[in-house]
From TrEMBL, chain A:
It catalyses: N(6)-[(R)-lipoyl]-L-lysyl-[glycine-cleavage complex H protein] + glycine + H(+) = N(6)-[(R)-S(8)-aminomethyldihydrolipoyl]-L-lysyl-[glycine-cleavage complex H protein] + CO2. It holds the Pfam family Aminotran_5. Its EC number is 1.4.4.2. It comes from Bosea lupini. This is glycine dehydrogenase (aminomethyl-transferring). PANTHER family: GLYCINE DEHYDROGENASE (DECARBOXYLATING), MITOCHONDRIAL, GLYCINE DEHYDROGENASE, DECARBOXYLATING. Residues 380-476 form the Glycine dehydrogenase C-terminal domain.
From TrEMBL, chain B:
The glycine cleavage system catalyzes the degradation of glycine. The P protein binds the alpha-amino group of glycine through its pyridoxal phosphate cofactor; CO(2) is released and the remaining methylamine moiety is then transferred to the lipoamide cofactor of the H protein. One of its GO terms (biological process) is nucleoside metabolic process. InterPro entries: GcvPA, GDC-P_N, PyrdxlP-dep_Trfase, PyrdxlP-dep_Trfase_major, PyrdxlP-dep_Trfase_small. Coiled coil: none annotated. The glycine cleavage system is composed of four proteins: P, T, L and H. In this organism, the P 'protein' is a heterodimer of two subunits. This is Probable glycine dehydrogenase (decarboxylating) subunit 1. The gene is gcvPA. It catalyses: N(6)-[(R)-lipoyl]-L-lysyl-[glycine-cleavage complex H protein] + glycine + H(+) = N(6)-[(R)-S(8)-aminomethyldihydrolipoyl]-L-lysyl-[glycine-cleavage complex H protein] + CO2. Residues 1-395 form the Glycine cleavage system P-protein N-terminal domain. Signal peptide: none annotated.
From TrEMBL, chain C:
The glycine cleavage system is composed of four proteins: P, T, L and H. PROSITE patterns: BIOTINYL_LIPOYL, LIPOYL. The keyword ATP-binding does not apply. This is Glycine cleavage system H protein. The modification N6-lipoyllysine is found at K60. It comes from Bosea lupini. The keyword Transmembrane helix does not apply. GO terms for cellular component: cytosol; glycine cleavage complex.
């Protein structure tokens, strides 16, 4: 067939010029208004028949007036959210080296099984005789978590890591109260390098916080802990591996010192991914540790949740585990929902949440565990640690390591010493990574390191992916040192948005859409 | 192992580049003897098919709500969720993203959070809403703490209509923080004298409407009395669909509003994950817990969104933070906001109307059953029935007949002497046939 | 004649008679970055030396402002509520936080002079 339409088939002219578009869109990147700007009050994307006339029982409580919520038809809804999704970076987009967050692959098998009607479509208060499979999932998950941590008990119900911290600290408080020391043991030790949730949790539960200094090598020294111990200390909250990515070498001695002083050891388990199948918190003297199922066991982060934060407990704390829990006796399992129903020897401190916790996350985490098996989980931890150290080895000559004397675990920490005098900050460097197609690492955390850059690649990355990442960061590092400032200080150039004005957002908070005031007619 | 990309050759090359011979050299900080040498006592890796089989078997042992006439509520509700919702929340860019700490590549998340906050504020009739809590119960406990910060008092009064799990969550946290709680006794018919419990020592009054027994409650007089004594009214709901039909708490001068948002966009999930809605008067904004998304502009002057007022939060304020919450209910928020966008006020109003109509029909039908008496006068889609036999036995007997009938009050409040009460919910999913089956079976059992 | 003294926490106090005006130094505002919110005490509050007098917030940090000396709060700069950026623009002038009526002027002796403070900042 002849090309009778005169259609050109070669690439167009090369041009360095970028033209503004009429719409403001940039091809696949579409500007998307708010639903309040495109929807209408009479529009709806659902078809529901009007009920036959009936006598209302709302009494005087019937709503008067408009709610003020627009609706969109189904095609408009689909397009709105698909366009929004295209402004987001996810693990499926590329390497997501956010330190302390364990952004690993999210298997879709886990999504599929969590949506089986027997899990997703069961009510927490339907008769327990109709949900034996749900109780099986909880028991099986509990067995895995107890085995992996070497701990004798687990409270499943906390909704996320911070909620798990609260649960563990409440168990400690209950144990202390049971010993009659509730009024005296009121201090919790928290290292300076800790996640903000640790001091916030301790304060929430009514403890006061005392900081443990960090040693120059990024670890906590048992002498520093001992110097703070006394009859007023309730517990220490220690992350292991710690937030500098180092396995605390004196952890066993620290645990022993706590126990000797009549206090408890709470371990923040956010970084458990480094040691699953390699070391067990139970062997290290831990009394309580939360496990972020949305980190280590891959239930998706979903843009900030939902998570799940089961807490494993030592023999000393196990009796105080909150309701609900499943009690097994004589081969029969029973859901204990009330203190009064607790079996002999159990003294629950209370309840963390309505119902039974994050079942949807339990199923996903269990699917992850079954898929990996004991061998796969151990391999995953080894690969996570290997990947982090490989990145560290690839960058150590250009970027500065604050703690070179310890191997990294699953994350490698750099500081901004190497950027001194370049006029480029850690934040600038992170934003330039966005232009290169990467999500930045965690920046400015932990607080004990100046201009911190915390890189956690996870086990999900191939060697090729790591090699390209290292090469990219090397190129950026050389450019930063070579005074190519504009590549950094004005970055990102190619993201859906340029840098945002956070000062303005905080000084004049606009937290919801307001209907614009009508434009006044020009005076005649 | 299908999830692990490294090959044995890769691993060897990488160890060589690092300069160690063995991966265990990287674990050299693990104290002597603590590094595991033997694999743990758990099964080995399994293929996808096998995992699906195992979990499928567990799942099939449970009775799914959609497979039977289903009337169970009391804090979680079976509703129809449009197919669009579940498709959209599984888009990679939503599902596999993190908390939007890098706003230039997280505008998708940030914009829907901003839209969600606007929707929740409109629904509740409040000035500001946050980007979610874990669920309604934990949100209620946070609201109590917030009221304590605002009023600088430490005593909460809880209505006897508050969901007993919510009461327990508040009591647990308050006991730990040495705060006082006065929980009024279970209030089946909304006749308690909560006004009498309010004085100058009270920080807040927590009232649920529709309450756990289904009663719709008048909040305005409680707000007035609370305010006269310098206390706050915290209004709670567990069925957000009710806001399509009833006067919102904001219109009754509530100071803080907390709700469970599961009904919109989210499945029952045996209790979680759910999504806590949290709204307040704007003058209390700096005492609010949780994330807030705000509008701003980028370097080119284009409108965009960021997380803001973060100095309230744990990652900055540490032990002086308003809450320790970090991860919240991001993806459940997305499901909520998509479903709410599909509904709009037209759809929500209609959905609420159908829920109410169905509940009225069921109440009328049940009141004709000998040995059953409806105790709730004004209600939305849930009410309490007094039975001639223990409700737990009746619920079991009906379950055996393939009907999930409701929640026996004894399940929530054992030993309270309320064993003859059953809380019954009825939503748009229930058909006339479902109701007929329930009524007939109940008549048989009683 | 007004005299200004400093703390190592970067507060200044400008004393006239028995009243001192307290704010944060130019160095401190530079370290903080854009100030977005200032929480002030109520007038009449008794402050003790080293105790929390106010809180100043930037986007990513919240810092306590400590009382350089003991005294009673006699005035607060409520203009900062609407215009927190004044702390950045004019920390030593319009960006002041509180005025304190000193209970013990002897406490001033323990504070740094202008020259001592400038030397101290150079070491940071």
């Amino acid at each position: 067939m002849l090309n009778r339409q005169g259609r050109p088939s070669q690439a167009g002219e090369a041009s360095a010029e970028v033209h503004e578009t009429f719409t403001g869109n940039r091809a696949l990147q579409q500007i998307e208004p708010l639903i309040f700007e495109i929807g209408h009050h009479e529009t709806t994307g659902v078809d529901i028949d009007k009920p036959a006339p009936f006598k209302s029982r709302l009494g005087k409580h019937a709503r008067q007036g408009e709610i003020g919520l627009p609706g969109l038809s189904e095609p408009e809804t689909m397009r709105h959210y698909v366009r929004l999704s295209q402004k987001n970076y996810g693990i499926d987009t590329g390497l997501f080296p956010l330190g302390s967050c364990t952004m690993k692959h999210n298997a879709r098998l886990n999504e599929k099984v969590a949506r089986l009607p027997g899990f997703s479509d069961v009510h927490p208060l339907q008769p327990t005789s109709t949900v034996p499979g749900a109780l099986d999932v909880m028991l099986e998950l509990a067995r895995y978590l107890m085995t992996l941590t070497g701990m004798p008990a687990v409270a499943l119900s906390p909704k996320a890591g911070a909620h798990g911290e609260a649960c563990g600290m409440m168990a400690i408080k209950a144990a202390i109260a049971a010993k009659g020391e509730g009024a005296t043991r009121t201090v919790v030790l928290v290292p300076e390098s800790a996640h903000g949730t640790n001091p916030a949790t301790a304060a929430l539960i009514g403890f006061s916080v005392k900081a443990v200094p960090a040693r120059p090598d990024g670890t906590v020294a048992v002498e520093d802990v001992k110097a703070l111990l006394g009859p007023d200390v309730a517990a220490i909250m220690l992350t292991n591996p710690n937030t500098c990515g180092i396995f605390e070498p004196q952890i066993v001695e620290i645990a022993a010192a706590m126990h000797e002083a009549g206090a408890y050891f709470y371990c923040d388990g956010a970084n458990f991914n480094a040691i699953v199948g390699k070391a067990r918190p139970g062997d290290l003297g831990v009394d309580a540790m939360h496990i972020n199922l949305h980190k280590t066991f891959s239930t998706p982060h979903g843009g900030g949740g939902p998570g799940a934060g089961p807490v494993v407990l030592s023999e000393r704390l196990a009796p105080y585990a909150p309701v609900p829990f499943i009690h097994v006796e004589g081969g029969k399992s029973r859901l204990v929902e009330h203190k009064a129903d607790a079996p002999e020897g159990s003294d629950p401190f209370g309840r963390m949440t309505a119902f039974h916790g994050q079942m949807g996350m339990y199923v996903r985490a269990l699917a992850y565990m079954l898929s990996h098996g004991a061998d796969g989980m151990k391999q995953a931890s080894e690969d996570a640690v290997l990947n982090a150290n490989y990145i560290r080895a690839g960058l150590a000559d250009l970027m500065s390591l604050p703690f070179p004397d310890h191997p990294s675990m699953h994350e490698a920490l750099f500081d901004d010493e190497w950027l001194k005098g370049t006029g480029v900050t850690t934040l600038d460097f992170a934003k330039a990574m966005i232009d290169e197609g990467y999500h930045p690492m965690t920046v400015y955390f932990p607080l004990v390191v100046h201009g911190a850059m915390l890189i956690e690649p996870t086990e999900s990355e191939s060697k090729a992916s790591l090699d390209l990442f290292i090469a990219t960061l090397r190129d950026l590092a050389i450019a930063a040192k070579g005074n190519d400032k504009s590549r950094f200080t004005a970055a990102p150039h190619h993201a859906p948005m340029r840098r945002l004005d956070e000062t303005r957002a905080a000084r004049q908070p606009v937290l919801k859409w307001e209907k614009p005031a009508p434009v006044k007619e020009a005076a005649e | 192992m299908r999830y692990l990309p490294l090959t044995e050759t890769d691993r060897e090359d990488m160890l060589a580049r690092i300069g160690v011979t063995d991966v265990d050299a990287l674990f050299s900080d693990v104290p002597n003897g603590k590094l595991l040498k033997e694999p743990l006592d758990l099964p080995r890796a399994k293929g996808e098919l096998e995992v699906e089989r195992i979990l499928g078997k567990m799942s099939s042992k449970n009775t799914a709500a959609g497979s039977v006439p289903f009337f169970v509520g009391a804090g979680a509700y079976k509703h129809h969720v449009p197919a669009t919702v579940d498709h959209l929340i599984q888009r990679s860019e939503f599902l596999t993203s993190y908390t939007p700490y890098q706003p230039e590549i997280a505008q998708g998340t940030l914009q829907y959070l901003f839209e969600f906050q606007t929707q929740v504020a409109a629904l509740t009739g409040m000035e500001v809403a946050n980007a979610s809590m874990y669920d309604g119960s934990t949100g209620t406990a946070e609201a109590v703490l917030m009221a304590h910060r605002v009023t600088r008092r430490r005593k909460a009064v809880l209505s006897g209509g508050l969901h007993p799990h919510y009461t327990q969550v508040v009591e647990t946290l308050s006991e730990m923080a040495n705060d006082e709680v006065v929980a009024l006794k279970p209030d089946i018919r909304a006749t308690e004298d909560i006004l009498a419990a309010i004085d100058d020592s009270v920080s807040c009054v927590v009232v649920q409407s529709p309450d756990v027994f289904g009663n719709l409650r008048d909040l305005k007089p409680i707000a007035d009395k609370a305010h006269a004594h310098g206390a706050l009214l915290i209004a709670v709901f567990t069925e957000v669909v009710s806001l399509g039909a009833v006067t919102p708490p904001g219109a009754q001068d509530a100071d803080i509003v907390v709700g469970e948002g599961q009904s919109i966009g989210n499945a029952l999930n045996f209790g979680g994950p759910y999504v806590g809605l949290f709204a307040a008067k704007s003058k209390y904004i700096r005492q609010m817990p949780g994330r807030l998304c705000g509008e701003t502009v980028d370097a080119d002057g284009r409108r965009g969104f960021v997380l803001t007022l973060s100095t309230r939060e744990q990652h900055i304020r540490r032990d002086k933070a308003t809450s320790n919450i970090c991860t919240n209910s991001g993806l459940c928020v997305l499901a909520f906001t998509i479903h709410m966008t599909l509904l709009g006020q037209a759809g929500l109003t209609r959905l609420a109307e159908v829920n109410h109509a169905n509940a009225v029909k069921l109440a009328d039908a049940l009141s004709g059953v000998k040995g059953a008496e409806i105790l709730t006068e004004s209600f939305f889609n849930e009410f309490t029935v007094k039975l001639a036999k223990p409700a737990a036995e009746v619920a079991e007997a009906l379950a055996a007949r393939g009907i999930l009938a409701g929640v026996p009050v004894s399940r929530l409040l054992p030993g309270a002497g309320l064993d003859d009460l059953l809380i019954v919910a009825n939503t748009e999913v229930n058909t006339d046939e479902d109701r007929a089956a329930f009524v007939a079976a109940l008549a048989e059992v009683l | 004649m007004a005299e200004t003294r400093y703390t190592k926490d970067h507060e200044y106090i400008r004393v006239e008679g028995d009243t001192g005006t307290v704010g944060i130094t130019d160095y401190a505002q530079g370290q903080l970055g854009d100030v977005v919110f200032v929480e002030l005490p109520s007038v009449g509050k008794a402050l003790s030396k080293g105790g929390e007098a106010a809180v100043v917030e930037s986007v990513k940090a919240a810092s306590e402002v400590y009382a350089p000396v003991s005294g009673e709060v006699v005035a607060v700069n409520s203009e900062l509520e609407a215009a927190p950026g004044t702390v950045n623009e004019d920390p030593a002038g319009k960006g002041w936080f509180v005025k304190i009526k000193l209970t013990n002027t002897g406490e001033l002796d323990g504070l740094l002079s202008e020259a001592e403070y400038q030397d101290y900042v150079k070491t940071l």
